Amino acid sequence: MISLIGVEMRRGLARRSTRGLLAVALLGIAVIGVSIFVTSRATFDTAGGLAEAEADHNRVLADCVGSNGFGGEVRSPGPSLTEACEQAVPPPESFVRDNRFHLTDLWAVDEGDSILHVTAVFLVIGALMGGATFIGGEWRWGTITTLLTWEPRRVRVFLAKAAAALLVTFVLGIVLQALVGLSVLPAALWRGTTAGADAEWFRAASGAVLRASALGAGAAVLGYAVASIGRNTAAALGVAFAYVSVFEALVRALKPGWQRWLMGDNGAVFLTGRQLRTADFERTVLEAAVILAVYLAATLAAGAFVFARREVT
Amino acid sequence: MSSATPVIEVEGLRKEYRRIRGRTTVAVDGLDLSVPSGGGVFSFLGPNGAGKTTTVRCLLGLVRPSAGQLRLFGVDTQRDLASVVGRVGSIVETPALFPGFSGRRNLALLGRVVGIGLRRVDEVLELVGLAERADDKVKSYSLGMRQRLGMGAALLRDPELLVLDEPVNALDPAGIKLLRRLGDEGRTVFLSSHLLGEVQQLCDHVTILARGRMIAAGPVAEVLERGRASGVLVKVADADRALDVLAQAGYTAERTGTASQDELRVSVAPARAAGITEVLAGARLFLHELRPDEIDLETVFLELTSEGGA
Ligand SMILES: Nc1ncnc2c1ncn2[C@@H]1O[C@H](COP(=O)(O)OP(=O)(O)OP(=O)(O)O)[C@@H](O)[C@H]1O
Ligand SMILES: [Mg+2]
How far is CA B296 from each of CA A28, B104, B221, B257, B303, rounded to the nearest angstrom? Predict the structure, then answer.
């Protein structure tokens, strides 16, 4: 079994589709690094920055006065409209734009968007595709026949492949996200700040990376299982995306009470480690993980059942 | 395992493929087959759609039989194929290997599953004549080279039994020699093929299949005999009169219907051809030519498997 998993991992890594997905991922990471570097500014409290902020402040102030206190929003019981506006509009300093890159944007612990949120979504999509082609390709080339004449215990073959997909995706997920971190490091060092990126933040971010990798690994196995039920990569991907983008969206709209059981929502909780703003249910990361694992196990069992009984012709 | 246990045993094999809309195709219909131990080359012949590939797939556990028993080395394949599969090397139809990987990598990955190292892989690549192209991607191989790589995969585990479904393109003279040698070494080669000429040279035993049933089996020479009565071909100047004369003398004769109008086929064992010359010479009909009407596997095959022949 171990040697079979090893072979499947090698095979998975050597596949052209895997390498294609990796190339796309690396390209994406390079784009992230470069674009953040280019759009960041090293400092924000320079003379130029202050003058800009002053100008912004004055423009808003003029708007306030010109629009009669933003259409009555700024009321003036005693003092004149101009005075009321001067009080209402924040001081010039607060108009200074912070164009530095904050390393903590990589992973925002408590609130706000993070770079790793976005990359995790792509990781999951890529993993789903990789997992599906992993088995879809075998049916397509008929190589499954050769493999099964070597190891006819089908459940074993099926699980070995699933384990290989899981392990490879998990490790690749960690590596790729580490590369994302590295790609934004120059921006943080020379065009921004590492303020707030202390040991505790690093621990939180590492946890997020592991969870995102686990989510990716789960998605790879899910894609693999669905593709072995459908025996076809494209069909599997179609079903998976239709499920997430149509079925779950419909449930969210029509049966809000069920939302707590959806894969998308639980995936989001698991990844971010936070409660969802868009839903009113409480979930711990562990609960979300268990729910996702149950879905995965059920799909995998269905895949194994179909794979074990399928006629290989 | 006693050496008397047949290598392959098939009893009452039936396989129906269910198609969409509930219709079924009976691919194999009550097939019995036995390949004894002791080595040799056995061929499995039948026209397209006879059920050869289906039988092989059932034997290797790729499809589930609808009824019947299958044993390899005495082991029920539906129960415990895994325990004997290491003694069997196989090619089913076009050998399926990863087109984007090199020949060596394809074999190395397969070998790794059961702990076979690169030494053996290179040995096998040499054996099937692919050593020089081993590092090229399989998609750059010719059809025959792919078949030979498939043969290499089948040989990797040094199997006692080789099951080769349609290895036609691997059967160049070198391939034939290799199979012959494996058979002589005491291994069993079980192959289905359409290249009847090659099969005839190569095989010791033949089983002929048509519409899912076995219609003839045995040593090649015996099956050839069973095909039809032997005869001699005779050429004379006056074929019409010769037919009369032969009929009067009690011989069954007929025109062969070939291009030459003066050729007759007389149903008599070639060893007794002297009687024909005597009768014809007695009627002052002199032979241009007399030769045994040789039967080859192809003719027998076509006769046995033609409609109504089963
Ligand atoms: N997957 C399948 N689904 C439905 N019918 C099938 C399937 N595979 C084979 N058949 C049918 O089973 C019958 C036997 O096919 P099989 O492939 O065993 O023949 P064969 O003797 O190998 O023929 P060939 O010489 O063309 O390779 C045919 O009628 C074929 O149409
Ligand atoms: Mg066939």
Answer: 67, 40, 10, 19, 11
* Whole-number Å distance between alpha carbons of B150 and A311: 21
Global confidence as pTM: 0.79
Q: Are residues A197 and A75 in the same domain?
A: no
CA distance B193 to B93: 10
Topology of domain B8-222, CATH: Rossmann fold (3.40.50)
Which among B287, B291, B239, B292 has a CA at the least distance from the CA of B261?
A: B239
ipTM, 2 decimals?
Answer: 0.75
Q: Are residues A152 and A198 in the same domain?
A: yes
Pairing of strands B231-236, B263-266: antiparallel
Provide, as residue numbers in chain B, all residues whose Cβ is less than 8 Å from the Cβ of A15.
100
Domain count, chain A: 2
**B56 Cα–ligand 2 center, Å:** 9
Mapped onto helix, strand or coil, the DSSP state of residue A87 is helix
pLDDT in tens, A220-274: 999 999 988 877 778 888 888 888 888 888 888 888 888 888 888 888 888 888 7
* CATH number belonging to the domain at B232-294, selected among 3.30.70, 3.30.750, 1.10.3470, 3.40.50: 3.30.70
- Please name the residue whose Cα sits nearest to atom 6 of ligand 1: B17
**Domain identity same for A38 and A73:** no
Judge if A199 and A108 occupy the same domain. Answer: yes
Q: How far apart are CA B298 and CA B158, in angstroms?
A: 32
Residues of A in contact with B90 (CB under 8 A): 149
Backbone angles phi, psi at B264, to 5 degrees: -120, 150
Closest atom, ligand 1, to C-alpha of B209: 21
Mutation target among A145, A151, A154, A312 for the B interface, most CBs of B within 10 A: A145
Distance from residue B93's CA to the centre of ligand 2 (Å): 6
Domain that holds residue A54: 46-95
